[in-house]
């Protein structure tokens, strides 16, 4: 119940505004955010990236945001990402950049997202930077894949995220294997209707293994993006994670022990970092998907 409530709060602008104006509730969300978000500024992101690089982890950096409603805001977000690309290079940070296409135009117009994506890919190419497109709700899947395929046909420094839990994704995967970009395999964070989605289950984990296997069969670069220890152990046992073009990627702050163990075992690892002001939705997602997070969150609320 609490998980569904959090997901509903995340998507409800009135509720979000109420919480942001509440002197009691907002600090509880801010406290939760500290666990999942590096900070509100680009400098915060760069600083955390440097500290993780120093510990031996390459990172992915995301300037957090999605569903940007106006063209002006999309241009601002795209420009922030251009600054980020420059800072990554000038500070000598080992980082890819991840983002939602709806942050830079998809919620306004698909052609705006494509234009911004094309510009970002060109700038990133000059700065030897790799871009990873995130995957959003299923209503946007076709548009995101269309844009990826167009840009990926021109630039070889752009990759894509695929949600294993969508029934359509196996067909999508087989098509994506014809494009050069890295494929980041995730279980999927969005609540979709049961007709199009497979719930968290053994079946989903088997499917995840199948996706990994199909990528490896054609030697395609992948990111294994999961915190599921059992699934990861099986992936390691089968020798899937040993290849140089396979990496294990986790969100910052979720399973630091597990990513550290994987690094110590000699696997390629990467940590995913976020910075920015628009953290509210992301934090609600991370709280909702894991019961212990919800209990902690409720305990924090009771103590306000
Ligand atoms: P699962 O949800 O089955 O959880 C397995 C175990 O992991 C749990 O039992 C718990 O131990 C731990 N765990 C998982 N989530 C936790 C949390 N929030 N707090 C504490 N422990 C937790 N999704 C999407 O739809 N589009 C995208 O573009 C991306 N991008 C992305 C990038 C990267 C690098 C990662 C790691 C993940 C994403 N995701 C995503 C999110 C992904 O779809 C998924 O929702 C989360 O990774 C949680 O699923 P798991 O695979 O970790 O397993």
From TrEMBL:
Keywords: FAD, Flavoprotein, Nucleotide-binding, Oxidoreductase, Proline metabolism. Residues 47-291 form the Proline dehydrogenase domain. Its cofactor is FAD. Gene3D superfamilies: 3.20.20.220. InterPro entries: FAD-linked_oxidoreductase-like, PRODH_bac_arc, Proline_DH_dom, Proline_oxidase. It catalyses: L-proline + a quinone = (S)-1-pyrroline-5-carboxylate + a quinol + H(+). Pathway: Amino-acid degradation; L-proline degradation into L-glutamate; L-glutamate from L-proline: step 1/2. It holds the Pfam family Pro_dh. Its EC number is 1.5.5.2. It is an enzyme of class 1 (oxidoreductase). This is proline dehydrogenase.
């Amino acid at each position: 119940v609490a998980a569904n409530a959090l997901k509903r709060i995340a998507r409800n602008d009135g509720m979000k505004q109420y919480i942001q104006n509440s002197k009691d509730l907002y600090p509880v969300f801010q406290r939760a955010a500290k666990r999942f978000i590096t900070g509100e500024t680009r400098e915060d992101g760069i600083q955390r990236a440097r500290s993780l690089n120093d510990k031996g982890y390459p990172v992915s950096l995301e300037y957090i945001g999605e569903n940007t409603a106006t063209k002006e805001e999309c241009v601002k977000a795209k420009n922030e990402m251009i600054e980020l690309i420059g800072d990554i290079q000038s500070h000598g940070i080992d980082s890819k950049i991840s983002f939602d296409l709806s942050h830079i135009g998809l919620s306004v117009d698909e052609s705006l997202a494509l234009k911004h994506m094309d510009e970002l890919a060109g700038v990133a190419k000059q700065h030897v930077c790799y871009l990873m497109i995130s995957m959003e709700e299923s209503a946007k899947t076709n548009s995101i894949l269309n844009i990826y395929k167009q840009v990926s046909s021109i630039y070889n420094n752009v990759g894509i995220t695929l949600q294993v839990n969508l029934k359509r994704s196996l067909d999508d995967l087989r098509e994506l294997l014809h494009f050069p970009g890295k494929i980041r395999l995730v279980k999927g964070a969005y609540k979709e209707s049961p007709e199009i989605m497979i719930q968290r289950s053994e079946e989903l984990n088997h499917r995840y293994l199948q996706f990994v296997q199909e990528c490896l069969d054609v030697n395609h670069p992948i990111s294994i993006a999961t915190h599921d220890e059992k699934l990861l152990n099986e992936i390691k046992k089968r020798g899937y994670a040993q290849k140089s073009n396979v990496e294990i990627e986790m969100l910052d702050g979720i399973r630091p022990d597990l990513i550290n163990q994987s690094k110590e075992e000699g696997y390629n690892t990467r940590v995913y970092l976020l910075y920015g002001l628009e953290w509210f939705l992301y934090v609600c997602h991370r709280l909702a998907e894991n019961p212990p997070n919800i209990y902690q969150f409720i305990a924090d609320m009771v103590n306000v």
